[in-house]
Amino acid sequence: MQIGAAFTERSMMLATQTENAKLGALGIEFPQPYNAAVDLVERNLRAGRADKIAVLDDQGSYTYAQVADRVNRFAGALTALGVCTEQRILLCLHDSIDFPTAFLGAIKAGIVPIPVNTLLTSKDYDFMLRDSRVQVLVVSEALVDTLKPILSGQPYLKHVIVSGEKSGEYLLLSDLTAAASPDFDTAPTSSNDACFWLYSSGSTGSPKGTVHLHSSLIYSAETYAKLVLGIQESDLVYSAAKLFFAYGLGNGLTFPFSVGATTILTAERPTPASVSRILRQRKPSIFYGVPTLYGALLSSPDMPSPDELSLRRCTSAGEALPPDIGRRWTDATGIDILDGIGSTEMLHIFLSNRPGDVRYGTTGKPVPGYQVKIVDENNVEVAVGEIGELQVLGPTAATCYWNNPEKSCNTFLGQWTRCGDKYVQSEDGYFTYCGRSDDMLKVGGIYVSPIEVEASLCSHESVQEVAIVGQADADDLIKPKAYVVLRPGLEPSPELAVALQLHVKNQIAPFKYPRWIEFIAELPKTATGKIQRFKLRSTPPDAESATNKP
């Protein structure tokens, strides 16, 4: 079965979507045949950047010419193993030169790479290997032990390739590429062919394989990266979000390669200490983070001083940025954070603040090439100022969820894609995030945004992080409950809980204040830094939590 043919109808719809989103004015055209890997790499060779550093990783540096050589060799190695066009391979790789090698090498051969989260369990990987029916797994040496228990029982898997120095019983990536030819004839793909998958987080069930086209990578670079972020050839970029994440894939690979910039890749976890060290020593000009990391950096003794930084742009996505964190970051560094929203389904950011036009507390305005609307339960657009569900139309939308027609039909509504987020639009066109549709609270018959309450609590000097969820009171009515992480060195107390409740009452409508405050050491989060509120909702009420009537 040819994947490209199977998704022809959706691909044609996306082509129409391009016209509707007025992308023609941006001058984006695709020759046929078209291959995204060839475009991203060879545009730099044609521009005379063959000797420029493309990637800095934990082991060394690599020029664009060296990347091109590695991509060709890996494409040839896959072909020699018998992997054919439109078949799939799974990438469970830490960030290093081997990620773009495998990702782009597969794409150049017309093979579909599927990067996956490197922090999952063997059970998760077992599901993805079976669901995607991949024939090849490329895995970092440090992760082999996690996957090894489930590899022998895979019905489709034929080859395991290890990125590292020792492969044991498996193939070694460096051996395969060393033995392959530096020349490779590109597969005759088109811009509307399936190019790569990304698995959704699976927070509401099994992960969903999200299928993207060859055109998606370049569209995300030509719209957000160039027209909002303003990325340039001279930039040195560093993304704390890893490449397996849709946000990180654009940040650390697609965007820098699209203009010939240099990207910093590291396998190290993005802790405040490690991120501060990279910001201080490597001196990137663009830093991509997530709200929880910005908050942690601001509270860390390792946070670099302004004269130790070389930043000109900072971005945030993955979770709404509390306005207090944004303002404190600007005060501390002199650089605004461009907060935006994207999704696995849309590949990258489609709604964002702009340089010189940052309004903290909002997600800004639509990225050029995208349209958004806010609708009610009947899919009818709501009036300005009313809360509804966000939908987006744009050129980077996925074609479907693999092997999941029911959820595909529920998410991909013709040319529009449901985001699952509640939003409100201001009179002057700024969009404000109110929470995930499942997280919204109705208190006294009125919608309460957990994000608004969280932002209020985060502005208190004692609060490091907070999450708001709904909890039933004695009358079985839903009211807000706050889980609060205090800043280092502070101790919880009933008096502090009352002070936090009064703080919220003094800032926003009093009926929105949290009826309960529970102090915890840390919030549950995904590998990409999103707070897992559903885990807090399933936590039994704590008898020790504050229940006060300030």
Describe, in plain words, how this protein is organized in 3D.
The protein has a nine-stranded mixed sheet. Strands 4-3-5-6-7 form a five-stranded parallel sheet, sandwiched between helices. Helix 4 (64-80) packs across helix 8 (173-179) and helix 9 (214-229) crosses helix 10 (246-259). It is of the alpha/beta class and 550 residues long. The protein folds into two domains: 3-425, Rossmann fold, CATH 3.40.50.12780; 439-547, GMP Synthetase, Chain A, domain 3 (2-Layer Sandwich), CATH 3.30.300.30. It has 17 helices and 28 strands.
List the helices and strands and how they pair.
Elements: H1 3-6, H2 8-20, H3 36-46, E1 53-56, E2 61-63, H4 64-80, E3 88-92, H5 98-108, E4 112-115, H6 122-132, E5 136-140, H7 144-151, E6 159-163, E7 171-172, H8 173-179, E8 194-199, E9 209-213, H9 214-229, E10 236-239, H10 246-259, E11 262-264, H11 272-281, E12 286-289, H12 291-299, E13 313-316, H13 323-333, E14 337-342, E15 349-352, E16 365-366, E17 371-375, E18 388-393, E19 400-401, H14 405-411, E20 412-413, E21 416-425, E22 431-436, E23 441-443, E24 446-448, H15 450-458, E25 463-472, E26 478-486, H16 494-507, E27 516-519, H17 533-537, E28 546-547
Parallel strand pairs: 1-11, 3-4, 3-5, 5-6, 6-7, 10-11, 10-12, 12-13, 13-14, 26-27
Antiparallel strand pairs: 1-2, 8-9, 9-19, 14-15, 15-16, 17-18, 18-21, 20-21, 21-22, 23-24, 25-26, 27-28
Helix pairs in contact: 3-4, 3-9, 3-10, 4-5, 4-8, 6-7, 9-10, 12-13
